Amino acid sequence: MRLASLLWKLSRAERPQASRHRKTNPESWTKLLEMQSHMESRTPGTEAYDEANEFVVEYLMKNFINSLDANLKSKFLPEISSELLHRMCGIIDTNALEIRLPDGAELFALYAKTYLVEHSCLPNTKHTFNLTSKDSNELYTIYMKAVVPIQKYGHINTMYSHALWGTPARRQHLKDTKYFSCKCIRCSDPTELGTYLSAAKCLVIWETTRLHI
């Protein structure tokens, strides 16, 4: 099945996953909690845990959640805790996609189906976002498009790192943020498929002379 020019829409173009309260939208809440958080690797003392704890968890608990009226907290945020906030940080760090707005601002969005697409440093799809719609139901919709022919039953993959980074930088980034060591065809090839993108660049030109006797 050739998909080179076919616009592949997830559920007719997937909208970002809303982080709603489990009582008002239990289905959305369940899908959110199904996403990987890698909390087993984000333990106290790790950079990811300590950073989230300082800049997100403690800040929210101290400045907002702990100051809420008990009745409001019981009604709208009965399950809130430091542990849950850490889990949300893990889910966002692991699964969120970066959206760059025209004004230079950056957003991070969770998509309930797109996050399941596997990674490859030689992806066969690309994704774009609807950033111009005046309809709030269409804004930030994600579209995935095949960039090469994909055979029937073939894997559909995308890239969770940066295409112009060399192998060491890509693998370290994926290890630090997604908690896996990439072994795709590009990472497994020392020449990076003949591009030598990670090769050291010679900064000195040596002149050779021939000795005549």
UniProtKB/TrEMBL annotation:
<protein>
    <submittedName>
        <fullName>Protein msta, isoform B</fullName>
    </submittedName>
</protein>
<dbReference type="InterPro" id="IPR053010">
    <property type="entry name" value="SET_SmydA-8"/>
</dbReference>
<dbReference type="InterPro" id="IPR046341">
    <property type="entry name" value="SET_dom_sf"/>
</dbReference>
